Amino acid sequence: MRVIFRPEKSEWEKIIARPTIDAEVLEQRVAEILHRVRREGDSALKALTAQYDGIELENLAVSEEEFIEAEKQVTTELKNSLETARRNIEKFHASQVEEVKMVETTKGVFCWRKSVPIEKVGLYIPAGSAPLFSTVLMLAVPAKIASCKEVIMCSPADKEGKINPATLYAAKICGVDKVFKIGGAQAIGAMAFGTESVPKVYKIFGPGNQFVTEAKRQVTKFGVAIDMPAGPSEVAVLADETAEPAFVAADLLSQAEHGVDSQVILVTTSEKIISETLAELEKQIEKLPRREIAKKALENSKVIFFDDLDTAVEFLNEYASEHLILAVEKAEELADRIINAGSVFVGNYSCESAGDYASGTNHTLPTNGFAKAFSGVSLDSFVKKITFQRLTPEGICNLGKTIETMAEAEGLHAHKMAVSVRLEKLRQEGGD
Amino acid sequence: MRVIFRPEKSEWEKIIARPTIDAEVLEQRVAEILHRVRREGDSALKALTAQYDGIELENLAVSEEEFIEAEKQVTTELKNSLETARRNIEKFHASQVEEVKMVETTKGVFCWRKSVPIEKVGLYIPAGSAPLFSTVLMLAVPAKIASCKEVIMCSPADKEGKINPATLYAAKICGVDKVFKIGGAQAIGAMAFGTESVPKVYKIFGPGNQFVTEAKRQVTKFGVAIDMPAGPSEVAVLADETAEPAFVAADLLSQAEHGVDSQVILVTTSEKIISETLAELEKQIEKLPRREIAKKALENSKVIFFDDLDTAVEFLNEYASEHLILAVEKAEELADRIINAGSVFVGNYSCESAGDYASGTNHTLPTNGFAKAFSGVSLDSFVKKITFQRLTPEGICNLGKTIETMAEAEGLHAHKMAVSVRLEKLRQEGGD
User: In DSSP terms, which residues pair with B267 in a beta bridge?
Assistant: First the structure.
């Protein structure tokens, strides 16, 4: 890790810059895949799956037998853990249910807003170096709380044509309606356009490699919504002298092991923490099966020293990290000053992996600085909030003149007339 | 208007299809404009403004004197109307403030979510055939309730280099920090990238022509968020025999007068309403200054007759209209069955223009069928919802095993270790 002492503000922009990828070749390839899926449907999906994943599939959908088989292969211990995680995620996301509040803005003018489930949603679950069954919980649980009518899922199969058993089991306990063995850009195309086997959905969720990410970006052109733009995963740890170097090191490593492009940053006000954390990193990294990935990620990672926490917080708000761990004495006080982050972990015992799996918060979060304008996935992501209004005759009488004046000033006379004809009718009735 | 009787479900897809535009030429031109603004800043903005709007501007920013001058030009009547509208919009959007709810998902595991304002937002206000000062209220009022730190606005100036006085006055009473005389794709580029005069923002809001819409789409590639994808404005009116043909006609016309590409649909269960509404349309349209626009829009519009309200509602949910007026006897009951719409107007006295201007609901709404997955602009649009969690030592002890089991099953050992080192520390302390 590169250690940077007291960087000037003029240097911050360079330090917080995320890696950019030249997307032009990628764009073209993904566009071709999407076009093919749109035109040829299932036969394109099967051909692309043979080409990219090296497997020949007769049926794209996971069968009932495969679900039963998967359930047998998941240990009781993992089942219990999944159930605990599912329950916590459910509790937290259920707290996001919004009640309908009726507001009478002017006497006789009633306005309200209602959350209505997005009818059809598609979840993408990658299966590269790690089977991400936790992401199934993170997406399917809020989809079910929202009461989405159709929840489908795509995930690539392995060389034997199977999806990881824990992934299938998680899908089952969360009530996912259908699972398809499709990966990559073709999976996103299938859910965006629909094929003979795969139903078309209105919104697509989930992480993925650069093909998946680019495909999600491209299908928005066709009116399909997506959860959020994506980039490599990130953690920033803020540590003062009360932090535990062993905890800090483990937290940095749990981000670093995700991929060689993981973004890992330690911001600290303590030189002692720097040396002790670096020593811990060296010790802990050797225990990891994925140490080669973690080492590469750490090579691009930074330790940044500031003299005071105020500047550190200012820097972190500029960075807008996906995950931010506050390993400082006054963690709760500092938490109130965080204005840009995906999810914040407050205090020494709040490790990122708690939120990744089981505490209840969602782990689908904005990376790449997007936390400045985007929220992570929540119950909100699975609903539309439709506004309603009802004007009584009294309401239109009270507000009519205001609307007429504004409509006229905007030169929109039919807008004015829509009020005038109603006021006229009421005058006639009043005169009867 | 073309009248379609009892269309079969197989025909619905064709009936509800929105016009598509070939975007390739547009894409290229907008990309060039954005590139130029990004590279050359203010000088590009001035050159493009001279080229497209035919005006030479020395200063892009509206001066204090111009604001004072504008205020003088707005009539007291319009000022009062703007104030009434502003107050209602504020009341309704203030009701969307979300309280922080702390949830203890497992004993010692606390999760919460906090709405934090997006620091810098940019509003685009078009000024083509109509000065849309109402849109200033719709965007700036929730931005202020959210406490966005910097709220800027771009709007094209007229041939005299002036922005419509009511637009400027609305910006002033809503607390917009800075207004710039820039229109089109170049305005979107200015706010996305920042120039010498125009601050870079994190999210861009507002309607516009196809250049603006395409520019908003393109800047998302650079990490800038936008309110929502856009398309031509739409209204659908559902009318049974209790509807008032004069009201229905005026409502259809207030959509039709927006532009020749406006989408206007009447769905009804009453043949009498059809003939009477068509007669009213002919009568009312002649009174409109914008009748030529309205006539063209109506040529592409449809009246659809169904035998029963159930089928009508099913059709309207497929259509997913931006605005939906329920001019039926059991309007409130039917409102509960609407699952896809931007904003719903319940009952004969709830005209769209009430929501367009002054009732309090937002008029920036999803068009083009996007209402199936998108919400209109609300207070939510101006905040990120950051999640927080705090685990006490008891919390990590209670949840630790669950996290370890899941992390190991996903093959992410550093994730597991982040818990193990903490549990180990607590065991040591407990043993002390």
Answer: B238, B304
Q: CB-CB: which of B77, B244, B414 is closest to A294?
A: B414
* Cα–Cα distance, A337 to B116 (Å, whole number): 10
Per-residue pLDDT tens digits for A309-345: 999 999 999 999 999 999 999 999 999 999 999 999 9
- Residue B230, pLDDT score: 85
Taking chain B (432 residues) in runs of 10, the rounded mean pLDDT of each run is 94 88 84 97 96 93 97 97 98 97 98 98 89 95 98 95 96 97 97 98 94 93 91 94 98 93 94 97 94 93 97 98 98 97 98 98 96 98 98 98 97 96 94 59
- Closest to A130 (Cβ–Cβ): which among B374, B393, B411? B411
Residue type, A316: L
Summary mean pLDDT of chain A: 95
**pLDDT over threshold 80, residue A128:** no
Average confidence score pLDDT of chain B = 95
How are strands ordered across the β-sheet holding B150-154? B178-180, B150-154, B120-124, B203-205, B225-226
Q: Give the model's pLDDT for residue A23.
A: 74
Q: Which one, of B278, B273, B258, lies nearest residue B312 by Cα?
A: B273
pLDDT (0 to 100) of residue A334: 97
B2-19+232-360: in CATH 3.30.70.1140: no
What does the pLDDT look like over B277-312, one tens digit per residue?
Answer: 999 999 999 999 999 999 999 998 999 999 999 999
* Assigned superfamily of B23-108+117-227: Nitrogenase molybdenum iron protein domain (3.40.50.1980)
pLDDT digits (tens, 9 = 90+) for B114-159: 999 999 999 999 987 678 999 999 999 999 999 999 999 999 999 9
CB proximity list for A161: less than 8 A, separation 6 or greater: A55, A56, A57, A181
* Distance, CA of A125 to CA of A131 (rounded, Å): 8
Contact A80 B335 (CB under 8 A): no
Tell me the shortest Cα–Cα distance from A44 to chain B, in angstroms: 24
Our answer to whether residue B363 is catalytic in this structure is: no
How many whole angstroms separate alpha carbon A303 and alpha carbon A237? 9
**What's the complex ipTM?**
0.96
Q: Does B219 touch chain A (CB under 8 A)?
A: no
Interface residue B100 vs chain A (CB under 8 A): no
B26 CB contacts (<8 Å, ≥6 apart)?
B210, B211, B214
Q: How far is A242 from chain B (nearest CA, A)?
A: 14
The 3-state DSSP class for residue B158 equals coil
Domain limits, CATH 3.40.50.1980, in chain A: 2-19+232-360, 23-108+117-227
The predicted structure's pLDDT at residue A431: 63
- Catalytic, A322? Answer yes
As given in the structure block, the two tokens for residue A337 are 């000053």
